[in-house]
Each structure stands twice: as structure tokens, then as C-alpha cells.
Specification:
Blueprint: H1 18-21, E1 27-33, H2 40-49, E2 57-64, E3 67-72, E4 75-82, H3 92-97, E5 115-122, H4 128-143, E6 148-153, E7 158-160, H5 162-170, H6 180-183, E8 185-190, E9 196-201, E10 211-216, H7 220-237, E11 246-250, E12 253-261, E13 269-274
Parallel strand pairs: 10-13
Antiparallel strand pairs: 1-5, 1-6, 2-3, 3-4, 4-5, 6-7, 8-9, 9-10, 11-12, 12-13
């Protein structure tokens, strides 16, 4: 599963200076827009008034020709208005699987978006979690602007309803409580025997192996919450689940941890969690 890329037809998508790309690699988020413009003035006014996690934006430049830059902590942040649709073929799958979208709002309307916003943080030396906290805070502010139709988080390949993204981003209190629902796709599927399975997308950018569970006797909601508990444990303690370890989903159930190639197209090994009767 590859990361989505900016629309190559517009030179502004590549307008990250060499200074921006020193240090940490660029991390991207996108906001799909209803019209042909973005309210940069309102966005900048709010940026002046809002602490992003625990730091303030500074060293503003622009907006000029749809490009706005500033510095946040040790990150160079670039916000670019791209005068075209985000590639629709990359949105079809996320539109079918988004969990963070209200049922009474047809997500198919996103096919009619006119332009999109690229938001990139680059150059920072912070940890993966910290860097994505900052990107989330900036993206949440953009998602709250008039005309925002959706947020696309390419590391998880999922779409998020803008008011929900803005609300969850505003609730970030510290790096101790990352908004994992925004960063991870927790894809549940049902097996023929009635058991559930799950695979994640978005763990590798955080510095961990993706998680795959071929089968387990859990309801989808319960399974997602259990996996989020595992992710939180890994973030707090590091990659401590070794090949051959066992963990418990319940007192009477032991889960075997195996490091093995992905069944769902992820690169490299994944954390495969096997219940007692798994293979």
C-alpha cells in the first residue's frame, strides 16, 4: 500500500525548499475543498491566536500564489492550495471504508470537490508521534475553515469528516495522548466462520510494524478498541512485542505474537496476532 502523492500536474505541490527537506522527512495531510479558494486570512488570524499542541507559529511567509509558510517548533510548515481535484481513484477505497464519517451525510459528494489543500511539515528532528501531533493541529485548524469537505490522511489511507477532525485535533492536550483514530485505519473484516479479523494501516510511519489479526472471536468495535490498547502500549513502551511472545485478550485466551510477512500488502514483516486456533 503506497502513500498518496500530491497531484503531479501542479508545480506548487513540489514547492518544498531544500531547507524544508533537511532533517525529518515531509509528512503530508490534505483537505478537500468545495470551491476554488481557501480563506487564508481567517486561517492565519486563528493561527496567531492558537497554540499548536504546546507551541506557537512564527516566521510567517505569504500567502503568495496560494502558498503559505511558517515555522512551528523546529518544523517548516507549508500550506499549498492546489487548483485541482485530489486524484479521485485514490479516494474511492477510502470513501467505501471510512469509519469517521456521519451516516446521514453521503460521502460520495466528495467526488465533486473542486480543489484541495496540501499541508506539509518537514525538517523537524522530533519523534514520529510529536511531528504528527503538530501536523494534526495545523490540519485541524484548516479543517475548521469554510469550504472544507474532508480531510485525507494518506498514511492511514482514510477520510475524516472535517468537524470531527477539527474537534479531535483541538482536544490534543499533550504528546501523551495521540489521536490514534485519526492516524490509523483499523480495518475489520468478517470470516466465513463468524470470527473477526483486522489489519492496520498507519503503524509503520509511527515507527512500528503494522498489526494483523487473521481471526479472533470479538465483535468489530471491541476488536478495534483492544487493538488501540495494544498500540497505546507500544507507543508508551516501544516495540516490545517479540516474535514468540504471548499476550492475552482475556484471562482464558492467549494470543501468540509472530513476526511474519503481511497478508494484506504491507511491506516487510508485521505483528501477526494468532489466537489459540490460529495458524
Amino acid at each position: 500500500m503506497s502513500k498518496s502523492k500530491p497531484n503531479p500536474s501542479d508545480d506548487r505541490a513540489d514547492d518544498l525548499s531544500e531547507d524544508d527537506q533537511e532533517g525529518g522527512e515531509p509528512i503530508l495531510a490534505f483537505v478537500l475543498l468545495e470551491g476554488e479558494s481557501f480563506p487564508f486570512e481567517t486561517f492565519i488570524d486563528q493561527l496567531f491566536e492558537t497554540a499548536m499542541v504546546d507551541v506557537w507559529a512564527e516566521a510567517f511567509e505569504g500567502p503568495d500564489d496560494g502558498i503559505f509558510r511558517f515555522v512551528l517548533d523546529d518544523e517548516s510548515v507549508t500550506v499549498v492550495l492546489l487548483p485541482s481535484q485530489y486524484p479521485l481513484d485514490e479516494l474511492e477505497g477510502p470513501m467505501e471504508t471510512s469509519l469517521l464519517w456521519p451516516q446521514d451525510d453521503p460521502i460520495e459528494r466528495l467526488r465533486k470537490h473542486q480543489t484541495h489543500l496540501l499541508i506539509a511539515v518537514a525538517g523537524g528532528e522530533g519523534a514520529a508521534i510529536r511531528r504528527r501531533m503538530l501536523l494534526t493541529a495545523v490540519t485541524g485548524l484548516a479543517a475548521g475553515q469554510q469550504g472544507a469537505m474532508a480531510v485525507y490522511w494518506p498514511e492511514a489511507t482514510h477520510l475524516v469528516y472535517p468537524p470531527l477532525f477539527a474537534e479531535m485535533a483541538a482536544d490534543i492536550a499533550s504528546s501523551e495522548a495521540p489521536p490514534l483514530w485519526l492516524w490509523l485505519d483499523l480495518r475489520v473484516f468478517l470470516n466465513d466462520d463468524g470470527t473477526s479479523g483486522l489489519f492496520t494501516t498507519g503503524m509503520r510511519p509511527l515507527g512500528f510494524m503494522e498489526i494483523e489479526i487473521p481471526r479472533i472471536e470479538m465483535q468489530p468495535g471491541e476488536l478495534r478498541e483492544w487493538v488501540l490498547d495494544i498500540v497505546s502500549y507500544l507507543i508508551e513502551n516501544g516495540p516490545v512485542l517479540n516474535d514468540g511472545d504471548t499476550i492475552g485478550a482475556a484471562e482464558e485466551q492467549r494470543i501468540l505474537v509472530r513476526h511474519r510477512p503481511s497478508q494484506f500488502g504491507h511491506e516487510g514483516n508485521v505483528l501477526c496476532l494468532l489466537c489459540d486456533s490460529g495458524s
